[in-house]
Specification:
Blueprint: H1 8-15, H2 20-45, H3 50-64, H4 71-84, H5 96-116, H6 119-140, H7 150-155, H8 158-176, H9 182-196
């Protein structure tokens, strides 16, 4: 089976093929799948505000579905999400912090994609999913990234491959969407992202 790899330029090219609102759907789905990492980190450390971050992402999904969000409200949600990103100098430090940071940043990029419609921001949301899982695999498997064969061992891990496949499936469905079934496709991607979010960091996914 071919090993999937993250290719930001290729992803940007694919995202450019779909309408700007659908790029938001792609980025929001990535953020949705990562969100439990932030919730877990917050529950372990007492830091952050998972309820607020969840509400912000829910608000974005509502906007995707047609609920108005003014430019001022959108910027406010971006600013709030930025404030919720864990900071490396905060104590206590926990291994989950890196993954929680990627989860919060993915929400920011999803919101920025809504703000400017750029493929780059949607691709950056996806990059943070890769970064989170890359660090997670290294930590959980106790891999020395500098050791021979480490890069292939990491990239071929089932957790990383599963996320790459999820991103590719979302993108295929968004590329193929037409106006008649757009709402149904968006709803399916959202529900699937929420359902899969509990298993993104789980070997049994």
């Amino acid at each position: 089976m071919e090993i999937l790899r993250f290719n930001e330029e290729s992803l940007k090219s694919e995202l450019s093929r779909i309408a700007a609102p659908l790029r938001v759907v792609f980025a929001a789905a990535v953020a949705e799948r990562l969100l439990p990492a932030y919730v877990t980190f917050s529950h372990k450390t007492g830091r952050g505000n998972p309820d607020l971050l969840t509400q912000i992402l829910e608000r974005l999904w509502g906007n995707i579905a047609g609920i108005e969000m003014s430019p001022e409200q959108l910027q406010q949600n971006i600013d709030l999400s930025m404030e919720l990103i864990p900071q490396e100098d905060e104590i206590p430090w926990a291994p989950d912090e890196a993954w929680a940071e990627d989860a919060a940043v993915a929400v920011v990029y999803a919101l920025r994609t809504r703000q400017n419609g750029k493929s780059q921001d949607a691709a950056w949301a996806a990059r943070h999913a890769w970064a989170a899982l890359d660090d997670f695999v290294i930590t959980q498997e106790d891999i020395d990234p500098s050791s021979p064969g480490a890069e292939e061992q990491i990239i071929s891990n089932p957790l990383i491959q599963a996320e790459f496949m999820r991103q590719q499936r979302d993108l295929r469905e968004l590329v193929a969407v037409d106006r008649q079934d757009e709402s149904a496709v968006v709803q399916k991607i959202r529900q699937r992202a929420k359902a899969k979010s509990i298993s993104v960091f789980n070997k049994e996914s």
